[in-house]
């Protein structure tokens, strides 16, 4: 245990002792218990390593945090969770010390609690409607649902208490899954459980989609993702990596020639968008996808031990205000940058990133340049980046997204001296599968169109996750994969 964990653990133990009989605590007492802080690595230490920042609750912290739940009969927290986990029931189990019961409750609805407990934007989902947060008039002070979810799921994994889900007898049906992100992992597990043979085709050499190549190790340890993929293998799911559907074989080949009865497309939204400003082709400009993939998937940060080179930059500008921008900025610091500037057109209140990532980025020294829009990347005679020109903005009328639009202030341009620019302003749908499968219809943004059963315009081909929603969240992708699996299982059973 590090010193901070020891201190927070001792405080939680003392507070639990002082509360006396936990079974008979009045709601007024419960609502006065302060939210347990999440122990984390010291910012000065963590900027020079890739280890996980948040260290997780100890048993005493989890039990005390669980005491804060008021067991609201209307379950506003559950209403905010995209997969409707029975949150009061799982928290009650944590409060009583029944960690196995807690994780079993969560797994009725979510297959990836260790992951969602870490990366869900809880303050905009389950915590948003929490009564405790409402009483405190601050959603950040709500019951720390994701931290408790992570605690019980980690405990189960670390103790080796997970059992391989039961698989029904073989049906003789075969199902192909394109991609191995959270939508595909959830789909594959539920279809395999019904006794169908499942083969996952992944374009990259590692499984997990964004969980592996996008979200950095310091936020989501890759061992957790590998563990989830291994669980699928143990259920009998076959996984073929380095297999690009649309190149190695087309989706139509898989269905008409390779003996698959149905398919799921979970190919995600991995196509980076650029700002469309002059100078974006200069040496030293990266999409966040490329930058993060080099670091996460190819371990470019382990210089000397990895084959993948990385770009040594001293001063970095990151464009954007979402999770991807925070991940890129914090990775740049860990790769040795002396200064990292986050350039965002609106104010911090409009930033789509998770509140915790914003707070962590600031603690680590990322400089936030809000109300600032990029206008041009500046380069030297060798076409190497030397600066980023930005213009100051003011907020005008709300746009289609409901957020107030940034309006540039003429004459306020300035050049920020940087040697690297990372563009993290959004991703579009991966186009390859729709391009090589004309039967599959897409909308004007390239997203695959599905019906209420998650079926595409090609019969027996289902789709879900970012390829349908546009860049969204892990839990939404997982929920879509499960819903598509229900429909696929019904179709293969002749009930749809
Ligand atoms: P993906 O995870 O994108 O997986 C798609 C997979 O399909 C990939 O592995 C890809 O290689 C593969 N593939 C694509 N085309 C083919 C093909 N033709 N053949 C075979 N395989 C193919 N969400 C959160 O909830 N919280 C966060 O904190 C968060 N942080 C993020 C940080 C970053 C850097 C990024 C990029 C995204 C983040 N997200 C976050 C969003 C979240 O990760 C995605 O919404 C989610 O992963 C989508 O899941 P998916 O299964 O639809 O697709
Ligand atoms: Fe909250 Fe996400 Fe867990 Fe649902 S899955 S309870 S939104 S952390
Ligand atoms: Fe507990 Fe908050 Fe849900 Fe009420 S809303 S049951 S306090 S987690």
Distance between the termini: 54 Å
Unreliable stretches (pLDDT < 50, length at least 5) are none
Number of domains as seen in the coordinates: 3
Report the top-level CATH class of the largest domain: Alpha Beta
The helix tally amounts to 20
What compounds sit in this structure? flavin-adenine dinucleotide, iron/sulfur cluster
Helix content: 25-40%
Q: What structural category arises from helix and sheet content? A: alpha/beta
CATH architecture of the largest domain: 3-Layer(bba) Sandwich
CATH homologous superfamily designation of the largest domain: FAD/NAD(P)-binding domain
Rg, please?
A: 24 Å
What's the story with the biggest beta sheet?
Answer: 5 strands, parallel
Q: Which fold name is given in CATH as the topology of the largest domain?
A: FAD/NAD(P)-binding domain
Q: Main sheet: which strands, in order across?
A: 3-2-1-4-16
Shape: globular
The counted number of beta strands is: 16
What portion of residues belong to β-strands?
15-25%
Q: What would the average pLDDT be, to the nearest integer?
A: 94
């Amino acid at each position: 245990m590090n010193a901070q964990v020891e201190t927070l653990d001792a405080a939680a133990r003392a507070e639990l002792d002082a509360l006396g009989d936990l079974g008979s605590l009045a709601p007024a007492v419960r609502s006065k218990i302060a939210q347990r802080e999440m122990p984390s690595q010291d910012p000065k230490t963590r900027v020079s390593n890739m280890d996980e920042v948040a260290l997780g609750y100890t048993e005493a912290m989890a039990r005390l945090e669980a005491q804060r739940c008021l067991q609201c009969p209307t379950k506003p927290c559950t209403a905010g969770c995209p997969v409707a986990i029975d949150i009061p029931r799982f928290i009650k189990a944590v409060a009583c010390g029944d960690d196995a019961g807690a994780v079993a409750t969560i797994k009725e609805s979510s297959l990836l609690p260790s992951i969602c407990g870490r990366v869900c934007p809880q303050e905009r989902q389950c915590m948003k409607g929490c009564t405790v947060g409402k009483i405190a008039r601050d959603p950040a002070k709500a019951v720390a649902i994701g931290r408790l979810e992570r605690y019980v799921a980690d405990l189960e994994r670390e103790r080796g208490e997970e059992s391989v889900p039961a698989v029904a007898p073989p049906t003789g049906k075969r199902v192909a899954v394109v991609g191995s992100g959270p939508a595909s992992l959830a789909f594959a597990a539920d279809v395999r459980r019904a006794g169908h043979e499942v083969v996952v085709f992944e374009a990259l050499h590692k499984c997990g989609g964004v969980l592996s190549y996008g979200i950095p190790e310091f936020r989501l340890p890759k061992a957790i993702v590998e563990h989830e993929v291994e669980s699928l293998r143990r259920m009998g799911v076959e996984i073929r990596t380095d297999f690009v559907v649309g190149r190695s074989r087309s989706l139509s080949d898989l269905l008409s020639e390779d003996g698959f009865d149905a398919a799921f497309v979970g190919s995600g939204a991995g196509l980076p968008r650029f700002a469309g400003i002059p100078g974006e082709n200069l040496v030293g400009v990266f999409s966040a996808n490329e930058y993060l993939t080099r670091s996460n998937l190819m371990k470019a940060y382990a210089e000397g031990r990895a084959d993948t080179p990385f770009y040594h930059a001293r001063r970095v500008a990151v464009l954007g205000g979402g999770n991807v921008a925070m991940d890129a900025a914090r990775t740049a610091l860990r790769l040795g940058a002396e200064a990292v500037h986050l350039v965002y057109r609106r104010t911090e209140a409009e930033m789509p990133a998770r509140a915790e990532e914003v707070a962590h980025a600031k603690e680590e020294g990322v400089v936030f340049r809000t109300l600032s829009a990029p206008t041009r990347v500046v380069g030297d005679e060798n076409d190497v980046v030397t600066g980023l020109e930005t213009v100051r903005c003011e907020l005008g009328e709300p746009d289609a997204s409901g957020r107030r639009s940034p309006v540039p202030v003429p004459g306020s341009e300035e050049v920020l001296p940087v040697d690297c620019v990372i563009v993290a302003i959004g991703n579009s749908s991966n186009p390859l599968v729709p391009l090589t499968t004309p039967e599959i219809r897409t909308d004007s943004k390239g997203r695959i169109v599905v019906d209420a059963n998650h079926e595409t315009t090609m019969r027996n081909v289902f789709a879900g996750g970012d390829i349908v929603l546009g860049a969204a969240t892990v839990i939404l992708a997982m929920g879509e994969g499960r819903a598509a699996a229900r429909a696929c299982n019904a179709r293969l059973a002749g009930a749809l």
